[in-house]
Amino acid sequence: MLAGYVKAGDVEEAKSIFDQMPERNIIASSSMIDLFGKTGRTTEARCLFDEMFENDMVSWSAMISCYEQNGMFEEALVLFAEMNCKGVMVDEIVIVTVISACANLLAYNEGKLTHGLACGDIRSSQRLFEESPLLDEISWNSMISGYSKAGFIRHARRLFDSMPKKDVVSWGAMISGYAQHEQYEETLELFHDMQLGEVKPDESTNNDIKINPILGATLIDMYLKSGCVQNAMEVFNGMEEKGVSTWNALIMGLAVNGSVEVSFEKFSEMQRCGVEPNDVTFLGILSACRHAGLVDEGRRYFESMISIHNIEPNIKHYGCMVDLLGRAGALEEAEELIEDMPMEPDVATWGALLGACEKHGNTDMGERIGTKLIERNQRENEETGSSENSRLEFD
Q1: Which one, 33, 101, 142, 384, has least CB within 10 Å?
Q2: What average pLDDT does this structure show over 298-314?
Q3: Cα–Cα distance for residue pair 56/78, rounded to 1 Å
Q4: How many of the other CB atoms lie within 10 Å of CB of 13?
Q5: Alpha-carbon distances, residue 347 vs 265, 317, 363 (angstroms)
Q6: Distance from first CA to last CA of the chain, Å, rounded?
Q7: pTM of the model
């Protein structure tokens, strides 16, 4: 009965049955840890893990996976280290989970995990992975994602090519890996291979490949950076589920390609569809205004960002507005905006205004801005030098 509720993902019913069990064996406890992990209840999972009289490889694996699934990558690695210290045997499931945690730490928290440990885990994972006689698609896909996130894109491709069976997730992992490392030619080529029938869709896809929001955003961004607006629109229109990242990629890409009015239309459509714009969305819209020289529209969007959507502009939003105003000759307004910024202007922002002064022949302001730009640049160089020295001392 417990297994049925666990399989169905019914946490409360499974917990009720589990609590009434006179004896809780390792299998039942591990199943509950796995269920807690899948539903984000990491604290309950860890409490149950610690209460177990005996932990085997399955329960250790379930707890490590629980942490990794919920973005607690450091906790996953700490628990893996404890597992090793206790001499518990490790299988390929644990390894791919750990390598995924290592990859995420490398990508988002550089410096928290030493390079040697990460490379050591990757190489060990590879050996154990290759020696394992039983590998499912989840294991293969996890290794491909792990290699890609850690920057070993060639290793990921070799593994992908050697897979006995590829599912949509496999293709998505490899395509995303190429796109993340800006290898757009390979991304396009692989995506076309997928479309040409290399993937056999299951019944749930209605004989068509479903592209999730993340993969969709990646493909749209890639097509638009290549100037292929029509291809990007085809991907976008063919998607059943569109996340904010999907809309952002389209809005920003259309603006860069000069399709400003279409970009504005998509922004309005996005809100009609109930998708709330974020700071990246407004950066795309302001970029569209800048490319087209639409000062009034830029002011209106900038104001609505703050007053209607409660989004605090960052340095990039301010820089975009300064560039827009400067290009239009509104130099005093641009300078006032810089002075009113809640953060210190960077070199790029001052540089945009300086360029506008040169364009419109305002030498007095240009000299004043040039002095500030030199001072800011000197401070940045000093800060960079200090940071480098500190890092070298730490190393």
Answers
A1: 384
A2: 94
A3: 17
A4: 15
A5: 33, 14, 19
A6: 55
A7: 0.52
